[in-house]
Batch of 3 targets.
Target 1
Amino acid sequence: MRVNITIAVDAMGGDYGPEVTVPAVLDLLDRDHGVSVILVGVPGRIEAVLRRSQTVLSARLQILAATEVVAMDEPPAQALKNKKDSSMRVAINLVRDGGAACCVSAGNTGALMATARFVLKMMPGIERPAIATTLPTINGHVYVLDLGANVDCNAEHLYQFGIMGSILASAVDGKERPSVGLLNIGHEAIKGSEVIKQAAELLRNSPINFHGNVEGDDIYRGTVDVVVCDGFVGNVVLKTSEGLAWMMVQIIRREFSKNLVSRLAALIALPVLNRFRRHMDPRQYNGASLLGLKGLVIKSHGGADAYAFRHALQYAASEVRSNVLGRIEASVMQLEPSI
Amino acid sequence: MRVNITIAVDAMGGDYGPEVTVPAVLDLLDRDHGVSVILVGVPGRIEAVLRRSQTVLSARLQILAATEVVAMDEPPAQALKNKKDSSMRVAINLVRDGGAACCVSAGNTGALMATARFVLKMMPGIERPAIATTLPTINGHVYVLDLGANVDCNAEHLYQFGIMGSILASAVDGKERPSVGLLNIGHEAIKGSEVIKQAAELLRNSPINFHGNVEGDDIYRGTVDVVVCDGFVGNVVLKTSEGLAWMMVQIIRREFSKNLVSRLAALIALPVLNRFRRHMDPRQYNGASLLGLKGLVIKSHGGADAYAFRHALQYAASEVRSNVLGRIEASVMQLEPSI
């Protein structure tokens, strides 16, 4: 590994704080020797977890003190105004000041969004940040954005999400012209709201590889590489999928533990069922990019465990290594006249 | 069975027309001796299928001729204006004129909606019809509406969907005060768009049992009996769920056919896997109600096979028997001052 990457980690964020973030960081450092981490947060609480695993600080693992913590249910505006020394804010400051190549947080989404936007600023031509993540498909994965940063979007916003999503997929996966679909309630161009129709028109006339409208099932059928929608719809897609996958796994479990015969069948089918569970495990898809900012910020699920949080850290490292930020910036510059 | 119910069936609707609708009707008539059916459509094509199964017409099975067929991709306004003798239109006319207690169609959703609205009219106080269906949950099922009739909804519309959904769940399932949730991107009252916040306010002050905001995963967790959303979001929920369930079943199949050992495991696990597949089979949830009209119309999935279409017919019979229409009408009358 030639280049050393530094990641700023909001150690206090998420439902479990350092109990999850610190073990995940230690696991990452073991696996990826090209990464250094700055743990940002209340030193006493971080050190307590480090001590338990008998880890000492090194060039690759440092602590940066922040005295405050943004609560998971704190109103974003309030966090932005009153908590200038929060672990989240200090971690984002590190990205702005060049002390870290990106920041990873499992904290309050709204506060992270507002703080990142305030500290890092938007790229020229991009009006709103978008949250993008990958979901599994039958033959790989798909990028979906926005996932909740913007509840009301106009056609321009959806168009900008399409551009950013296309660049993200191309940068991370090395696809030359990733296909982009607009989530709608029918494949035909006459379907959907006025906003959707206008967004489709803008995307059709853009330099990206616009596939046209897609429907909800196309997400998992792998019809396109990128699916664009507003934040309300994207969040519902994500949560609905979580709920359905959870239910299906519960039902399989219930069916297999019904009686002696089915329990025996489960024993024999165990390796296969485990492979299935691993494939469907949402934890390995943890890590969403906040796109459109002049700096790289990755959001982890608030309820992430150490395994899931480590995946968000790995995703962050891969975004840095594929220079997602620089590529989006370059493309946005090129497109700006048309935006 | 005391009362005999007559169902008008749009025999030409759906991707397969009489090839699917007629066998489904014959299956229903065998199973439910309290039902009569009027097959509406092109007599020659219906008779061809009847002849193949050596069925003769009777008091319980009649044909009503309609010369035209609405195409699956025909613009609704055009179908409404130009095809006054379509199987869809004639079947709905039967409901208006009292010749049938309800109508079932697998035809073009937009055309069905527009025609039903034109022929049957809306109930007083209800501005827009809604499409409602049930989805499976971990412990039963949930009603979700709207599923695509309305892409843009205001707070009043969502409020009316809540009222109608509550009455539907109470009538069909006999629940006294079904709980109603408003689909949002967070449980907190501060989350979501202005429309959602206003709708929540209206529902909170209504006589129904309003649970508050729910998120996508709550649909499958069985958190509430009814989930309310606009038609765009509802359609995305439905299609996304279809896609994810399809993908999960494909992956299970793939994993179990990987090698000799897993194929053996599949053989042993087969009865359990079949139970699982039956539980998840979307065909048994086929049949969506068009609510808010002065008449009962049930929409079947366009791609339904005979098994799925028979389920839509059964759902229609259960709605007639539980007097869903009369109950919604009575409740709407009571509520009207507040609406």
Target 2
Amino acid sequence: MNNDLNEKTATEVTMKLKKINILIPALLITISSSAAFASLTLTERKVPTPAGISNELAQILENRQIAPALPVPTNNEEWLKLQTAFDAPGIEIANIALERLKVTYKEKQIAGVDTFLVTPENVAADYEDKWLIHVHGGAFVFGGGESALREAAWIANGLGAQVISVDYRKPPLNPFPAAIDDVVTVWKEIIKTQPPESTAIFGTSAGGNITLATTMKIQELGLGTPGALFVGTPAVDLKEASDSWHTLKGLDPLGQREGIIEETSKLYSAGEDLDNPLISPIYAEIDTFPPTVFISGTRDLLLSDTVRMHRHLRAADVEAELHIYDGQSHGDYINGIVTNLPESDDAIKEISNFFNKHIN
Amino acid sequence: MNNDLNEKTATEVTMKLKKINILIPALLITISSSAAFASLTLTERKVPTPAGISNELAQILENRQIAPALPVPTNNEEWLKLQTAFDAPGIEIANIALERLKVTYKEKQIAGVDTFLVTPENVAADYEDKWLIHVHGGAFVFGGGESALREAAWIANGLGAQVISVDYRKPPLNPFPAAIDDVVTVWKEIIKTQPPESTAIFGTSAGGNITLATTMKIQELGLGTPGALFVGTPAVDLKEASDSWHTLKGLDPLGQREGIIEETSKLYSAGEDLDNPLISPIYAEIDTFPPTVFISGTRDLLLSDTVRMHRHLRAADVEAELHIYDGQSHGDYINGIVTNLPESDDAIKEISNFFNKHIN
């Protein structure tokens, strides 16, 4: 573009625009200077079920309940208790999903790291000789143990792929960079038997964060580069609250950033700067990076984090796809593990296509 | 996916989930049944300037004013008066943009249709032998005449491309399908001198709608298929208010759907069913369709329309890209015509890459 407008001219343009009192973008509707303006406030409203989503998703949204603010634990013992309380229903859902999807697993220590080897009923030909690496979500603190099998089972079944789900070490006992170190350790073992570019790493939320950070770390260590990533609604900025934390609060069952979620960032970073790129990948300088597919929803508290990271990769000319589901909140695409959900199947199709293109 | 869960089992699963009172998505955070839940309401809030946007965009957002509800015209004369009032500042901005970007134009009738031939200072080698077709936005009623040159100049300058901007006939005097007919007429002339697959059609908002509808129409008429489309924040559902009309109201200077915008849909459709696919492209059955790049923002009242159409094309395996800018409202990407705006340059880069891939 010709950006040859000097400062003075820019000011003149701004003045002129103010004078004619146009709204930006004036592309569409412009208003005369006599109109009364409202300030930039979201007023209270009830939000109806979105048009144009599946009946199945509509039913989920109509039974939606938003997480209330819970008291923040004040010591390790309380954090561990909360971890157990949060993960219990997750394990129950994982068991339902495993049974429903006919996915099996076994525990295995890989170079000292706890993992689950997760296998679908039918392994697709493309995935016979490879394992995908799963990094579970759960705000860095939660979502471990068998509760991690929810997303692992979803991908294993959806793609017909064998998945190693890393049960990485977590705060409060093991803060950053323990989780990344654990995934790197598994990565080192994996690439002994399969080419780096033929495998993928994937995860949602904090799992998306660690997927991105681990990829940066293994690039830094010269351990090759995965062939592709699936990064679902990732937390990429633990320092600043991205816009959708503000705009969509009240629509996403995840609740709010203030309180427990914000505290998990502190617990995870354990005094490291929150703009450390391995803690907040949005602050990374990206040079080369593997092809990455992002998924989020228009009611996702991490929508802004997701689109910011997508743009950050695209600015570095990384091959990166963005898929946004209308009306979905944080991680909603995974609900297909417990109920028929067309949007969930659609997301699997996108991930599958993307992996087929880049690693199969 | 194995969707072999029968109805009975599905009910059992639902009951079980209700019993353990998990939140969906339980992937991340799960709550015990004793917690108190809020209902699905957006409560009033002030929304701060988004983290992670350019200083230039931040400045625009901090001076943002939201369009108030204006009285709806009650007859053709009032509509025409409003048209003139709305378009006047748009023409002024177009003139600023043309001067700033060193883009020139001349009026030309093509087979009886009014158009502007828009030429950048330097035509890129890839575009020497072709013209792109521009369909301006403005809620079907507004944005015509020289005010259409805003977006035409943006693309002409950004891509170094020659652009034919169609000054299509509009309501109240010329409702649907006059606009589509006019673009089809221009298309017929264009393909006399350049291969259909080497050109692109593009437009924003109502212009995105007409871009999509015209493409369907020319496919139906057997007049070939454009090589690519750029569809910016399109209005694809004039029948139902997509979710972001509800969730983001108050953040987008476009204002609200109720009132003038809703009435422009009626004026445009003039009694035709609003779910006619040529009026609301989201209701089209898509078989084959040209590669399409979509752009929107997280504060765009038409974010939901945009992502719905992206998914609709993807469901038919159409090559379609989605780029979402954090904090941007309806059509904000075009603000680069009057001020330096990194996000605007970035959008140009995406459109340019996409067109290079598909038509150059």
Target 3
Amino acid sequence: MDAAAPTGLWLIGARGSVATTAITGLLALRAGVVPATGCVSAQPHFDELRLPAWEDLVVGGHDIVSTPLAERAAQLSEAGVVPPRVLDAVRGRLDTVESELREGYHPATNSGSQTDAARRLADDITDFARRHGLARVVVLNVSSTEPAFPGLPEHGSLEALEAAMAVPGRTVLPPSSLAAYAALRAGCSYVDFTPSTGIRLPALEHLAARQSLPYAGSDGKTGETLVRSALAPLFASRALRVRSWAGTNLLGGGDGLTLADSEHAGSKLASKGRGLATLLGEDVVAPLHIDNVPDLGEQKMAWDNVSFEGFLGARMSLQFTWTGYDSALAAPLVLDLARFTSAAHAAGQTGPLGALGFYFKDPMGTDEHRLAEQAAELAGWAAKL
Amino acid sequence: MDAAAPTGLWLIGARGSVATTAITGLLALRAGVVPATGCVSAQPHFDELRLPAWEDLVVGGHDIVSTPLAERAAQLSEAGVVPPRVLDAVRGRLDTVESELREGYHPATNSGSQTDAARRLADDITDFARRHGLARVVVLNVSSTEPAFPGLPEHGSLEALEAAMAVPGRTVLPPSSLAAYAALRAGCSYVDFTPSTGIRLPALEHLAARQSLPYAGSDGKTGETLVRSALAPLFASRALRVRSWAGTNLLGGGDGLTLADSEHAGSKLASKGRGLATLLGEDVVAPLHIDNVPDLGEQKMAWDNVSFEGFLGARMSLQFTWTGYDSALAAPLVLDLARFTSAAHAAGQTGPLGALGFYFKDPMGTDEHRLAEQAAELAGWAAKL
Amino acid sequence: MDAAAPTGLWLIGARGSVATTAITGLLALRAGVVPATGCVSAQPHFDELRLPAWEDLVVGGHDIVSTPLAERAAQLSEAGVVPPRVLDAVRGRLDTVESELREGYHPATNSGSQTDAARRLADDITDFARRHGLARVVVLNVSSTEPAFPGLPEHGSLEALEAAMAVPGRTVLPPSSLAAYAALRAGCSYVDFTPSTGIRLPALEHLAARQSLPYAGSDGKTGETLVRSALAPLFASRALRVRSWAGTNLLGGGDGLTLADSEHAGSKLASKGRGLATLLGEDVVAPLHIDNVPDLGEQKMAWDNVSFEGFLGARMSLQFTWTGYDSALAAPLVLDLARFTSAAHAAGQTGPLGALGFYFKDPMGTDEHRLAEQAAELAGWAAKL
Amino acid sequence: MDAAAPTGLWLIGARGSVATTAITGLLALRAGVVPATGCVSAQPHFDELRLPAWEDLVVGGHDIVSTPLAERAAQLSEAGVVPPRVLDAVRGRLDTVESELREGYHPATNSGSQTDAARRLADDITDFARRHGLARVVVLNVSSTEPAFPGLPEHGSLEALEAAMAVPGRTVLPPSSLAAYAALRAGCSYVDFTPSTGIRLPALEHLAARQSLPYAGSDGKTGETLVRSALAPLFASRALRVRSWAGTNLLGGGDGLTLADSEHAGSKLASKGRGLATLLGEDVVAPLHIDNVPDLGEQKMAWDNVSFEGFLGARMSLQFTWTGYDSALAAPLVLDLARFTSAAHAAGQTGPLGALGFYFKDPMGTDEHRLAEQAAELAGWAAKL
């Protein structure tokens, strides 16, 4: 077992803003032109772990769009996410990654069965691993949030699922779940940074178990929920009674467009809501909105109002405003997750990696939503790897 | 050893807003007319501890003003801190506490030596304990923040201190420290909810050790610093680099008047600043103001702007606004501290109670400022009492 | 013509929070126990006008609920809107107003035709005027916002409307419009403080013209839109380009319940939106939400984020948070509108009173939405009365 | 009289951020690569005025530092104020302006009398006007805010002043006033965009009158005070009683460094305070701070809390946060002021131009601080030019 051998990071949605920032940033870290700000795994207390070094991470991926990475990186530079000097430093190397990107799966363009589609996806990953002599590959989903996909009886067992997938023209899995299936079939761990269905189907969890593979997710915690997971424990630990917690999210870019549309937002809003109730120990009134505000570009903004009650019923309040670049917040976590999941795989861990709950709005394998406790759990888990 | 025997709570500044709210609230809790919102020690996970029950706490105290408690409680009701129905429920019993209040020490009215003054203060407490058959008394300072008091060589040893105190007309200790001295001499534990000097002099710490007494402090964490201690770890745990953390505090009431005056604010601002540097692991630009805004009455408000840097140097920000009633935030903590300190005394603990750092801006006996870690430490410590 | 003769104020929704606060406040002003804070018409520069004095205003009204005014006033006192000492000062006089309240119209309980219902409503008002020897009566709608009512061909002409109203069991007008019809038939001016349809139907505007009556509305401007109408001109006058203006409203009380329901909110949101586009001179991205947050009680809160562009395309922003008591903001305006509309009626003005646009989110008779210009227009108009 | 003839704009502090942004922006406007966002004088309703066109403005100036303009522009581009494509478009032309810059006056490096120094400054301007055949020159101060300068008896009359100035080694005028003196002596109008003393001395105002020259100032209104001048009238016009108005300003760049220093901030804070009292019609508690937060770079941020009282004493509040680029806010106003002041000069106006109060925190020649009224006054005045 050698966690530090060349490791693959295969990105689903590899030309998206998060992926492009992660790729650009990884190249910049390798080139030594930026510090590892935002990369938790680069903090001193993880130094003794045998995590893959920046040099050891090889990136490839699937996407359904074909805009060249270099062009996406230039757009992100215009938008203020990638400084010009960083872009200059990595420009040439983006093409190397470009050559590792393959066409993703989209139901509208898939003429055959989902079995065939999954095989193609898995082959892309296997070829990638073989070409680069990779010890293992982490498949990580950073594609756009999908609309909610209906539950089907076939999701309950692997046999039923695979039978249904073999029927030409039938769409029994949403793209994120097909990607997870392909990853597992290719012997890869799977991480979902989105709230899409992904691996969260009994049949797929069963497959992961059978393949002895670890997985993690879901929905990267990078903004409003991140702050909530630091603040909500304050009220609980001080025996203050939260009466309502209202939130508004303003998103620009493609994310705003996708998520302000109610069908896609469904999974996102549900994922945000679950955490709050757990954090506070009870349900509170918690209206929540996601608005599309295109002029914000790559920025996102959240405003929350917490109304709470103290001693003798005194009414008090806390408001916060969070303004950040979504991709700059998410990208270093993508690199962290690649390193930690790879190390977990190398260490023989299987099933949901609850210790990575620190990174997610809707963590699998744990009910812990409190940020400080999650950070401690991550550190403790990593120390034992 | 019986932690649940009648226990005294002796308040320095017993007619102030915090003390009056604590007293009124304690009577209301005993009368069963309010829930214990804001009282950490009343949370289920402390149930197994033998903390003094609300019925077991007997309150007395010193103050240099003489406004009757009932009048102070009525003012706090006007100001929105004490609901009218609570005031109605406890009115009669306030007089019982009133009869336990004694005149406090003020250098301007003290004609003799500080030794004499300390003896009188200690006698007041001893009489109180004897009258009520108290197992022990916690002396707790909630008086107004003092101006900074100069360090003197006599503070370094108990012998030198006592020699200086005996000189008529000499003021070698500020009132808070004289109160701490008297408390220790009377065999009582001492808690400082203010940033005043109090027990924090080598001579007094030495006296506490000799008397085998526990003590705790200092400066109750009830607002801006409370939120900071929940939020700052977010940045540290996510490897985000805080560049500046600016804060503004608007205070009404007597607190605003005292603290906006730069001489008194000195110790408060220093106490707030120490914590932030520790929380972030490095010094950051952190301008901080306390303004007197009388129309806010018992309310206080804080606005903070955190400017931070993420992946690839992306500039982002967090702002928060906290609006609360200072006394409603502080009073339940005063009751908590009385219960926990009494239990620690009963359990034979001595010296600074670092596990109570959860309650303080500038905790003695610990360097931990992170709220979640402090909460965990408190729970662990209490479980072992 | 004597504008200062006894004048009636007939409130539709007379037991609601706004009406109860207006009534309680009027009685308190008469009793001299409060200053006229929030009453624009009581400012010195209106002194020379012959507006009805507080003593000259006689109040009656309709409501479909029957909770006694005194009970409603007590609830508002609990909620922090009416100070206890004000309640004490006016308690007896509330019963005098109570005796002037009559049962309002509700389609669900109306068995006959709308003609019959309107006659009953008009008779109530006429009796009220006769009993008190009133020179004139202002009918003012402060009832809950109605769901949108479909446009009908009959709304286009008075004849067609009255023919349809005569059909038993047919509901051709929503309650607010039936109230406006009854008011006009009783020879009264009509003011709509809500976004409901009210008088805004060609048939009713025609009736007002035929009766030579003035009217005003609609939708009282008391919070987010008030601030917007002061701030938006800043951007316009400085040639700054607003790119988006996002808003979130948190409402407690019955208002939150009514308006967070999308059907009722329709008219409210439309009314808020129209103004912003006019103020900025162009449509901007302006997502807007109204959330029901019951624990806020009578308070309401708005948060807006304005994203704008300056010289050389620099991106900048303004956020504001507004926290107020809805009824305390609205009630003095209700009194102002009664005084000004009565004076306009006395002066022989007819049709929409555009000069009262200062008070409304969606002003009739003017396109001016800028607050400063509206204030100047009001002052100029009043000076000429 | 030909307002549109070539006009000079002579900047004091010509290498500062505001000046550099104004110069860069003017060149970009001439090149047609940016719209005139933020330039009030470019709005359609000023089209009929014969203001100097962008092509007609010739720029020169004094500064005591020597960093080349092109380098300063590059720094401002790094800081996000000047977009890279704008910098590219004007780069060559910056050198043309560079050649028009001369060494400014600093008391520490002036060995002779202030009379000599003033003569040199005036000669620089006269040469500039002659070289370019300028009809007139507007001298405009955008240099760093000076420390308060003590009032001297010599400031009271021109004769006394000039006698004192002639004494070698004596510093009877601060640099801003010496610049104003030189401007007037050179027959130029003078505008002060800073809160420094500038022309505001009886002797200099007398000189302006004798020379029949107009002048304007002082202290450009670009942030917190701008918002206040739009919001404060809301409270006044609605008869709401402001109880306190607290403000915090966070500044980066050189401005933060200069102004957070209490000696320099004196004039700035005084200038901010005067306006608020005038706007509200009474003095209110209004604590105000300016903090130096270097990491903000060219950005500035203000947070204000307005606590106010409404009907029946209801306590309510408004908070706002303003985040902007100081230079991007100020630069277009500098160009406006050059155009309007030149037109006023051409039209034969003399003395303080109160109609330009729209641009200033502490306007000369008017007591009007309300933004909407100032905008109307500017438009009316300009229409009559």
